[in-house]
Design a protein that fits this description.
Number of strands: 11
CATH class of the largest domain: Alpha Beta
Number of helices: 13
Largest sheet: 5 strands, parallel
Mean pLDDT: 75
Order of helices and strands: HHHHHHEEHEHEEHEEEHEHEHEH
Structural class: alpha/beta
CATH architecture of the largest domain: 3-Layer(aba) Sandwich
Low-confidence stretches: 1-6, 97-149
Length: 375
């Protein structure tokens, strides 16, 4: 029994993803477009060369593609026929008019032994067919119980036979965050005297006329300290990867001391060591331990839900006033766009003495400068 040929190299694409090859939607669509232009349809070798040219960047990736073609059971004739059939189906789907309703259609099924994948028949209403030709329907459903904001999900499959591989794109990469932390420096000298002080050595030589040994001083080191308070409430779920990036990049910043503590909605009497709000510690103990450091608060401050809670704004203002007695510099990062702050709790907090900045590369750089003391 022979295995059916995956449509339009979909099996190869999945094999590459399974082996860690960084191919995405654009690469898959480039492969389909190349087939439509006539490349790779002459023989198995031509199709193999096309896949290597489009999707491989190293010897290991080429070996993965070669292995996949070596175990492909279909002969060259069946391969070319299957490619033509799949391209015809895609072209037919793309050429359907979107302005007028179309009758429900069923996808053609292949005869046994033809080497193609039987496609199940589908029955759609005229309105659904016309809508799918324009765009995929999106519905909203919560990811889990009590997770906060709903996550958009497809209500129906797209009209074309393609699988999309979505790769998450972080707001800021860990490497870029580490570079930003390196900018946050306060150089001081402390420790053993192992570095020669040339100016002091010359002065000592001129004063005594005889120099027994050079004058040494401690090396410069970064004495900057940082405390990050991150909001781990359900409304911050979309930015959990950004919070993880903050925590992962801190050890790469070479700060004298840096720590992340979590809260829900607003910093109350207890702060937590994990995003799951476990391992509590009193807020006063945390503030006293990091007195003299810089403070960075990360929260949407109610702007994600568009809510205005004056009591929350007053309590947050009291906390910030207390924090200013312990920390010489404080910055608030809000991942929501600035235009969404107006009329929410975030807008009231942003009007206070602590600067509130959006989360993007220029404003992150500005936040670091404020933490350094450059107002």
């Amino acid at each position: 029994m022979t295995h059916p040929l995956p449509p339009l190299l979909l099996g190869l694409f999945r094999e590459l993803k399974a082996n860690g090859v960084p191919v995405g939607i654009r690469d898959y669509l480039d492969g389909i477009e190349a087939l439509r232009l006539g490349f790779g349809q002459d023989s198995r070798a031509a199709l193999r060369d096309l896949a290597i040219a489009l999707w491989s960047r190293s010897d290991e990736e080429r070996r993965v593609i070669n292995r996949w073609f070596d175990v492909l059971p279909a002969p060259d004739d069946a391969l070319a026929a299957t490619i033509d059939d799949q391209l015809d189906r895609l072209d037919t789907t793309a050429s359907e008019p979107t302005g007028a309703p179309t009758a429900p259609t069923a996808r053609p099924t292949a005869q046994p032994g033809a080497g193609t994948t039987p496609a199940p028949a589908t029955s759609l209403s005229p309105e659904a067919t016309a809508t799918q030709a324009e765009r995929a329907r999106v519905s909203f459903a919560a990811a889990r119980e009590g997770s906060g904001l709903p996550i958009p999900r497809l209500a129906s499959a797209p009209a074309i036979d393609e699988d999309y591989v979505l790769t998450p794109q972080p707001l800021v990469s860990p490497r870029d965050m580490a570079v930003l932390w390196r900018r946050y420096r306060r150089s001081t000298r402390h420790g053993p005297r192992t570095e020669m002080d040339l100016a002091a050595t010359l002065r000592e030589r001129c004063r005594r006329g005889l120099l027994c040994r050079p004058v040494c001083r401690p090396h410069r080191s970064n004495s900057a300290r940082l405390l990050i308070l991150a909001d781990a409430s359900p409304s911050m779920d979309p930015w959990r990867p950004f919070l993880a990036t903050l925590a992962e990049s801190l050890p790469l910043g070479r700060l004298a001391r840096a720590e992340v503590r979590y809260f829900s909605n607003q910093p109350r009497r207890q702060l937590y060591a994990t995003p799951g709000l476990t391992e509590p510690e009193t807020r006063d103990d945390v503030l006293r331990r990091h007195a003299g450091a810089a403070l960075l608060v990360v929260s949407d401050a109610g702007s994600a839900r568009g809510a205005l809670n004056r009591r929350r704004a007053l309590q947050t203002a009291d906390f910030l006033n207390e924090a200013r007695r312990h920390f010489p510099a404080t910055v608030w990062l809000n991942p929501m766009p600035k235009r969404r702050w107006a009329g929410t709790t975030a807008g009231l907090i942003a009007d206070g003495p602590v600067p509130m900045l959006p989360v993007d590369a220029p404003h992150l750089l500005r936040a670091i400068d404020i933490l350094r003391g450059n107002k």
